[in-house]
Design brief:
This protein has 22 helices and 14 strands. A hairpin with a 2-residue loop joins strand 8 and strand 9. It is of the alpha+beta class. The chain has a five-stranded antiparallel β-sheet with strand order 1-2-3-4-12. It has a five-stranded mixed β-sheet with strand order 5-10-11-14-13. The chain is elongated, with a radius of gyration of 30 Å. Among the domains are: 120 residues, Tetratricopeptide repeat domain (Serine Threonine Protein Phosphatase 5, Tetratricopeptide repeat, Alpha Horseshoe), CATH 1.25.40.10; 216 residues, no CATH class. Helix content is 49%, strand content 13%. The structure holds zinc ion. Zinc ion binds next to loops.
């Protein structure tokens, strides 16, 4: 049932009301006006049964006030007394023929009575009076859903959303419409960056530490509507297989989420803490294996080595200009910051930097993830692995190789292709470890997308001279475990000089 529950107070009448309920003016109020005000205030305060009594009293006393008719009408719709409600609204319109809200309410009554032609007529009248009346557009969309004109329904609900882009109810209606009838959509795939045929796939509803945290956060003031997050539509690009959330339906909640601080990439933080505390041996082993594979593609001594990590920006400047060797342990903060600047030029958004992202509390003070990454030594264990594995394999030629490692990061970024392009300009070798890919459900909540497996197309998308090596199978083989099915890629710049 579509109903309206908030008592009608349009601007001119609201002004009237606030004037007449102003205590200093009670002197001038007639007994009829007193009853009207009492009824509206009771309704506004949610005391419905008392409000009804007062509205009845108003009608008995022949108070010809359109607010009485429309407000009481709305309560009667809730009770299913549609014919009475209709008569009251017609009366309200007779007294106040220029109110878009009254026509809208009458339209709602007719929708409930399944008189769709009449409903459509009055809702369009409401729009004639007020072109920006989002509720009337939404109600016309509802009529079209009921009459199975889903193309039209989509048209009207998008109009409503254009007026009020953050309207959750309208977003949900749109997602229902689209799920109901569309097989494929033409959308700009966030990975391909081109208009593609996409189809709807299941949203990933699995809960993890991240979503748990999110839900507990949502109980606090300024809360995130978790329902809103979990009802987002998810698409799959039929060209590259990448999966992503509907840009129209996702951004406001996703933005809230990404700026939420402590919940930002919570799972990743947990993993890295485990590494730091040496609790997560399998992760260390994984990184060891990755660098073992990667070293086969590194021809010369490493100049700068940087890491971009899930959950946040981690970085290490590896090259010691005096000894001309990698000395990861002794790198100064200043050197790390220099390397940070290099990474900042790859992807300047707040997401990757975790600028607003708080990591952990020490004595009541939150440090940002970025600060942590640079100063805390959180990556010490990874640094150690890198230096031993890589130094063994380095070919001592005079040319230096600059390496960047994207560790489970790419699917957090707003424009992965762009970030890789920038990386190719600044580094010679790009190591990419990606999260597991699930073809049947969309990305998990903390990821913007699941990047597809069509690596043959990356060359064209990148448009820069490079070789792309898919080393996922080698990674799986070395893991000797079916569980580990992360994806590993190496992109090697083709030096032109
Ligand atoms: Zn695509």
């Amino acid at each position: 049932m579509t109903t309206f529950t908030i008592p009608y107070l349009n601007r001119e009448l609201k002004d009237n009301l606030s004037f007449s309920i102003n205590p200093t003016n009670t002197f001038h109020i007639t007994p009829k006006e007193q009853i009207i005000n009492k009824a509206i205030i009771l309704h506004y305060e949610g005391n419905i049964s008392e409000a009804k009594n007062y509205y009845e009293l108003c009608i008995k006393k022949r108070c010809n006030d359109p607010r009485i008719f429309s407000n009481y009408g709305s309560l009667l719709i809730d009770d299913g007394k549609l014919i009475e409600a209709e008569l009251l609204l017609l009366k309200a319109i007779e007294l106040h023929p220029d109110s878009a809200a009254f026509y809208n309410q009458l339209g709602i009554i007719y929708i409930n009575e399944k008189k769709f032609r009449e409903a459509n007529y009055y809702l369009k009248k409401a729009i004639e009076i007020n072109l920006h009346f989002e509720d009337a557009y939404k109600n016309i969309a509802i009529i079209n859903i009921k009459e199975k004109n889903l193309d039209k329904a989509e048209y009207y609900i998008r109009k409503a959303l254009k007026i009020n882009p953050k309207w959750i109810e309208a977003k949900l209606i749109l997602s229902q419409i689209l799920l109901g009838y569309k097989q494929s959509f033409n959308l700009v795939c966030p990975f391909c960056r081109e208009s593609r045929d996409c189809r709807i796939i299941k949203t990933n509803l699995s809960k993890n530490k991240f979503t748990d945290k999110l839900i507990s956060e949502s109980r606090k003031p300024n809360k995130i509507n978790t329902n809103d997050l979990f009802t987002r539509l998810c698409y799959s690009c039929l060209f590259c297989g990448s999966q992503f959330y509907d840009p129209m339906l996702s951004d406001n909640s996703l933005d809230i989420l990404y700026n939420k601080g402590i919940v930002h990439h919570n799972v990743g933080w947990y993993n890295y803490k485990s590494i730091k505390e040496k609790k997560n041996q399998s992760n260390q082993r994984q990184i060891n294996i990755i660098f073992n594979i990667a070293s086969n593609y590194i021809d010369s001594k490493i100049g700068i080595y940087s890491e971009v990590n899930c959950p946040f920006q981690g970085l290490i400047n590896a090259y010691d200009p005096i000894s001309k060797e990698i000395k990861l342990k002794s790198v100064s903060s200043l050197e790390k910051i220099k390397s940070a600047e290099r990474i900042l030029s790859i992807e300047p958004s707040k997401e990757i930097w975790g600028m607003g992202c708080k990591s952990e509390e020490t004595k009541g003070i939150y440090k940002s993830c970025r600060q942590q990454a640079i100063y805390s030594g959180l990556f010490q264990s990874i640094q150690n692995i890198n230096s031993t594995v890589l130094l063994e394999k380095i070919n001592l030629s005079s040319t230096l190789t600059n390496v960047i490692f994207y560790a489970n990061t790419l699917d957090h970024l707003p424009n992965p292709i762009n970030s890789i392009k920038n990386s190719i300009k600044l580094f010679d070798i790009i190591i990419i470890l990606m999260h597991k890919y699930n073809s049947t459900v969309g990305p998990t909540m903390q990821h913007r997308m699941q990047i597809g497996n069509l690596y043959q197309n990356w060359n064209k998308l990148l448009g820069l001279p490079c070789n792309i090596y898919d080393l996922s199978n080698e990674l799986k083989r070395k893991h000797k475990s079916k569980k580990e099915d992360d994806r590993l890629l190496i992109i090697k710049k083709i030096k032109t000089h």
